[in-house]
From TrEMBL, chains A, B:
Residues 9-291 form the Prephenate/arogenate dehydrogenase domain. The keyword Metal-binding does not apply. It comes from Micromonospora craterilacus. GO terms for molecular function: NAD+ binding; prephenate dehydrogenase (NAD+) activity; prephenate dehydrogenase (NADP+) activity. Keywords: Oxidoreductase. Belongs to the prephenate/arogenate dehydrogenase family. Pfam families: PDH_C (PF20463), PDH_N (PF02153). This is Prephenate dehydrogenase/arogenate dehydrogenase family protein. Transmembrane segments: none annotated. One of its GO terms (biological process) is tyrosine biosynthetic process.
């Protein structure tokens, strides 16, 4: 239910790099009324020459819009949120596409924006950057975290509908702090490991031969070390404490593997790899069952938020959200245990 | 120059799992006279039903052959080498496809087999196992290490010709101990990192949500943790000291990254990622120049071995080898510096 009964939804995207740009391209391809803006003049020119509607000033891009997606480098998002909130009406929903959520969620709370700002994180990307790397289908089938809160539940519902319908993404409802703990392990620590692997190879006296014999394991394991350094550094710094905590879990497991290897303990080594392999098997072979769930209009917001967060914690996601005068109906997909 | 002047080369493959099986399938597809054998009766039956020539007994597979490829689990290779050597004539070349080389090279030296055994390591694979996962094109374009030694230079030349011609692989000449140090970083440590990442996720209280939000970085970084555990354990144990030494280099870099993150030092973090990114750029964008090099018949074997090992150390490879009465001619490809 993207469109209201009277008028189609009008959208803006502020910050049109890889992620914001892909959001913009998809909204445009879907036929929505959308305008983009980026602080970088060359990016705006690039968008215009690609035939994508782009404003010259941020205020012109967001004026009169119903939904604004906030992109751009992570450290810039608080300031962008304040500026766009000031340039838009109270009815206008705001969401961001940053890779960490707790800090911005707290910031929005302090600024009294929770009723119309929904922290978001589309889990897709490439190791390239900028609008030139953006593609409209980037989010199809990808996880897209949206953080529900009782005060912003109406905004959450409208965004969940938009993201499932227009982007064909799997909406994962999750509290902001939980999100940050999860992505620390699901995304940020892998960037640390990739950096350490590629960095050690770069420094090795055997570098040239190592690159020649780089097996699939090395290529895959170091891939995200090719991401623009500044972007990776911003991402890690934006989630520092959670990343360091998750890293401790990974290095503890690594110590067990190395200890078993050092001791020549084949059984222990095999057992640890069997344990690790279980995660891979779950990743490859997960099956889901569908659950339809409705909440009546005027029901308790905390009940709905609790159910939504339970879906995310269980490894589930939403594929649809319909809002009408009677309330809201979600289509959820929950993994079978295992 | 695979075939001699009189008769086509006759080949056998002993141990026809993923790697040996792919060798067998490629030799068969190339029209060579090849017979396979595996100690597992079901594997032999599977090969027969696929129309691949397979003997019921190892001695029948290798009798009268010019070249035998030795496959199977790493710990079984010394015994296989001894058995196949006893069942074949002095003219018969032997090579293996195991993932570590120094131990088997020393074993062959002690058994007086250096003149006809060339340690080998085709650097290709999948996270599946067995003949059912084997494909004939597995090695096309892949690095295939062969270890040259003065006493086994004639054998090395013939194998280099066979591997470049039939498998379209890039032959990387490298001493056995150097190979093990290189693959420790290029393949084995990535398996440790992948195991640690997947294992930590499996143990995490956030496991289900982590798997749902698993980004490309997590999927790629943990991929080889899905490899059969026993195989990974064998591989690591077969190269223990080199793996632990290479791991120390990686954890040192990881400590630097974590230290910069903990200190909130954005410049240091970005600088480390720029360093890591240089290895990725070199991996993606290497260019090579071709070098033709001949060695006359009766020349000094140590000169030829030194040149060959220099090609491997520089990150180069061979794409051809021609032997005739005048000597040997190699086509080498050497990376441009950078």
């Amino acid at each position: 239910m993207v469109d209201g009964p009277d008028a189609p939804v009008r959208v803006a995207v502020v910050g049109t790099g890889l992620i914001g740009g892909s959001v913009l391209l998809r909204l445009h391809a879907a036929g929505l009324d959308v305008t983009g803006w980026d602080p970088d003049e060359a990016t705006r020119r690039q968008a215009r020459s690609a035939g994508v509607p782009t404003a010259e000033r941020m205020v012109d891009a967001v004026a009169g819009r119903d939904v604004v997606f906030l992109g751009g480098p992570l450290p810039t998002l608080p300031a962008t949120l304040v500026e766009v909130a000031a340039a838009t009406g109270e009815h206008c929903l705001l969401t961001d596409v940053g890779s960490t959520k707790a800090e911005l969620a707290s910031f929005a709370l302090a600024r009294g924006l929770t009723h119309r700002f929904v922290p978001g994180h589309p889990m897709a990307g490439t190791d390239r950057a900028g609008l030139g790397a953006a593609v409209p289908e980037l989010f199809a089938g990808a996880a897209w975290v949206l953080c529900p809160a009782p005060a912003g539940l109406a905004a959450f519902r409208r965004l969940a509908a938009l993201v499932t319908e227009v982007f064909a993404a799997r909406v994962v409802p999750m509290a902001a702090d939980r999100h940050d703990a999860v992505v620390a392990l699901a995304s940020h620590v892998p960037h640390l490991l990739a950096g350490a692997l590629a960095g050690a190879a770069e420094r090795s006296p055997l570098r040239d031969a190592v690159l020649t014999l780089a097996a699939g394991s090395f290529r895959d394991g170091s891939r995200v070390a090719g991401t623009p350094p500044q972007r990776t550094a911003n991402m890690l710094r934006g989630n520092r404490d959670e990343v360091l905590a998750a890293l401790a879990g990974v290095t503890a497991f690594l110590d067990e593997l190395a200890g078993a290897l050092r001791a020549g303990d084949a059984d222990a080594l095999t057992a640890r790899y069997a344990e690790a392999g279980a995660a891979r098997a779950a990743l490859a072979g997960r099956s889901y069952h569908e659950q339809l769930r409705s909440f009546p209009a005027g029901g308790r917001a905390t009940d709905e938020v609790a159910w939504l967060c339970g879906v995310g914690a269980a490894g589930g996601h939403l594929s649809g959200c319909r809002v009408d005068a009677d309330g809201v109906a979600y289509i959820a997909h929950l993994p079978h245990p295992g």
